[in-house]
């Protein structure tokens, strides 16, 4: 006994389905290559670093303006990492000039450092650096750990 389906009720053949799946796979691969999510995340991280460097420098400038030009303790003419063992500026800047100390996106999952019970936690490390110029007392804050081959992000004022 042969059963024939009516002409309007025919389905797709296996080859037709495989061809459609192959075309969709090729389109998906082209889209992923064009978007390149890893590059997008790296660019976003570099943008955050530039924003953090500006925020840190603005907070240091505001501190100096409020303290007759004096800088937070720990900032001098040698390049120092902004950390509890380097330029420890957390207690001087947090809550009055910054809500929380910004951290490099790849350091501590990018979680900003905030005060706990009125004091900064130890140990902490932002992976940003600060230096005061010996010639003209200008401050430079840098983000040395950049991505995509970008030179260190730094701002001087």
Structure write-up:
There is one protein chain. The protein is of the alpha+beta class and 157 residues long. It has one domain (35-156). The chain is 36% helix and 13% strand. The protein contains three helices and four strands; from the N terminus they run ααβαβββ. The protein has helices spanning 14-35, 37-66, 90-93, and strands at residues 80-83, 125-132, 139-143, 153-156. A four-stranded antiparallel sheet has the order 1-2-3-4, with helices on one face. The longest helix has 30 residues, at 37-66. The radius of gyration is 27 Å and the shape is elongated. The protein starts with 13 loop residues before the first helix and ends with a strand.
Which sequence of strands runs across the widest sheet? 1-2-3-4
Helix tally equals: 3
Total strands: the figure is 4
| Overall number of structural domains | 1
Uncertain segments: none
Features of this protein?
157 residues; alpha+beta; 3 helices; 13% strand; elongated
């Amino acid at each position: 006994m042969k059963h024939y389906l009516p002409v309007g009720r025919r389905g797709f053949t296996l080859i037709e389905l495989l061809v459609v799946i192959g075309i969709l796979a090729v389109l998906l691969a082209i889209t992923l290559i064009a978007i390149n999510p890893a590059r997008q995340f790296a660019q976003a991280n570099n943008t955050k670093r530039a924003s953090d460097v500006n925020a840190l420098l603005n907070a240091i400038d505001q501190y100096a303006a409020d303290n007759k030009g004096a800088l937070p303790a720990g900032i001098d003419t040698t390049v120092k990492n902004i950390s509890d063992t380097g330029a420890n500026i957390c207690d001087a800047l947090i809550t009055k000039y910054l809500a929380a100390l910004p951290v490099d996106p790849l350091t501590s999952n990018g979680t900003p450092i905030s005060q706990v019970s009125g004091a900064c936690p130890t140990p902490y490390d932002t992976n940003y650096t600060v230096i005061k110029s010996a010639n003209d007392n200008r401050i430079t804050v840098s983000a040395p750990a950049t991505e995509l081959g970008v030179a260190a992000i730094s701002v001087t004022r």
